[in-house]
């Protein structure tokens, strides 16, 4: 199983609006096709005094081929409105991980 995680950092004044957007728009758009599943949004705790809030948006996906298909066919449709809405008030980076079974 592949874990697709994007960590976002949003300005303090917008963090509640960001959470609402993620739950109401971003997650439903991301999972609509069924390629990305099991969404989980989590707050990332940082250093004391750090301005703004960080959040990890995580999905699972069957394999790298499926993730590449989502990236090619759907990611722009999902990320463009997010970036348009929050512009320079939001930054993020993605990581792709493989679950190790034990």
Explain the overall architecture.
This protein is α+β, with helices and mostly antiparallel strands. The chain has a domain at 1-33 and 64-97. The chain contains three helices and four strands; from the N terminus they run βαββααβ. It has a four-stranded antiparallel beta sheet with strand order 2-3-1-4. Strand 2 and strand 3 (53-61) form a beta hairpin. Helix 1 packs antiparallel against helix 3. The longest helix is centred in the first third of the chain and has 17 residues, at 15-31. The model has no long low-confidence stretch (mean pLDDT 94).
Q: What is the overall silhouette? A: globular
Helix content: 25-40%
Strand content: 25-35%
Total number of helical segments? 3
Give the CA-CA distance, first to last residue: 13 Å
The radius of gyration computed from the alpha-carbon positions, rounded to a whole number of angstroms, is 14 Å
Would you count the extended β strands for me? 4
What is this structure's SSE topology?
Blueprint: E1 2-10, H1 15-31, E2 37-44, E3 53-61, H2 64-73, H3 75-86, E4 90-98
Antiparallel strand pairs: 1-3, 1-4, 2-3
Helix pairs in contact: 1-3
Give a quick set of tags describing it.
single chain; 102 residues; alpha+beta; four-stranded antiparallel β-sheet; 3 helices; 38% helix; globular
């Amino acid at each position: 199983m592949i874990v697709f995680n994007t960590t976002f950092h949003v300005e303090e004044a917008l963090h509640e609006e960001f959470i609402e957007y993620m739950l109401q728009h971003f997650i439903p758009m991301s999972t609509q096709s069924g390629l990305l599943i099991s969404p989980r949004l989590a707050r990332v705790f940082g250093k004391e005094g750090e301005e703004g809030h960080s959040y990890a948006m995580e999905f699972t996906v069957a394999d790298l081929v499926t993730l590449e298909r989502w990236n090619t066919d759907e990611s722009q449709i999902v990320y463009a409105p997010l970036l348009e809405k929050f512009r320079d008030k939001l930054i993020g980076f993605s990581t792709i991980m493989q679950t190790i079974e034990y």
